[in-house]
Task: inverse folding
């Protein structure tokens, strides 16, 4: 793939309060808020990457750009950090929504089940219900993806895992 093409792809960094915890989300493509887009202009599918440990989104930027480019830039690609693994720089605004569930509602937000509930809360709050999802998990992100599939059958999910071939 031509690296100059990947360089032209916009990557928007946001820090969002999700379940009461700072969460980094990197968004490839022009769509930063899927609810603000007019329905006719809204993409039909979101590619959602759940990181492996240690949960840093920046590791996945080249992969996310390549995915966005390979879909002819028709679909957004978002990468989400693990809850509390990345702190916002002091000058960066942390976005909040009125729909954010309280951190006390999620038992052990930093544990494995808490991370699953964190990703579910993000999807339910920041992605329109009718949007199709391709969820890609790497390492522990695979487990989180499978748990989301099990716990939220109402979500229109397609699942891919990123595990090395043995």
Result:
């Amino acid at each position: 793939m031509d690296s100059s093409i990947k360089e032209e792809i916009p990557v928007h960094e946001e820090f969002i309060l999700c379940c009461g915890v700072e969460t980094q989300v990197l968004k490839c493509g022009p769509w930063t808020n899927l609810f603000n887009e007019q329905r006719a202009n809204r993409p039909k599918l979101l590619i959602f990457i759940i990181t492996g440990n240690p949960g840093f989104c920046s590791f996945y930027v080249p992969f996310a750009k390549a995915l966005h480019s390979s879909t002819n830039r028709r679909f957004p690609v978002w990468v989400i950090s693990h809850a509390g693994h990345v702190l916002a720089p002091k000058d960066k605004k942390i976005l909040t929504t009125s729909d954010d569930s309280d951190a006390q509602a999620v038992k052990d937000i930093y544990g494995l089940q808490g991370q699953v509930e964190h990703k579910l809360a993000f999807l339910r709050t920041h992605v329109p219900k009718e949007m199709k999802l391709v969820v890609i998990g790497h390492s522990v992100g695979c487990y989180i993806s499978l748990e989301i599939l099990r716990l939220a059958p109402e979500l229109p999910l397609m699942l891919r895992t990123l595990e090395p071939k043995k």
About this structure: The chain is about 25% helix and 25% strand. The mean pLDDT is 87. The longest helix spans residues 112-126. Residues 11-31+42-85+105-161 form a domain with the Rossmann fold fold (CATH 3.40.50.1820).
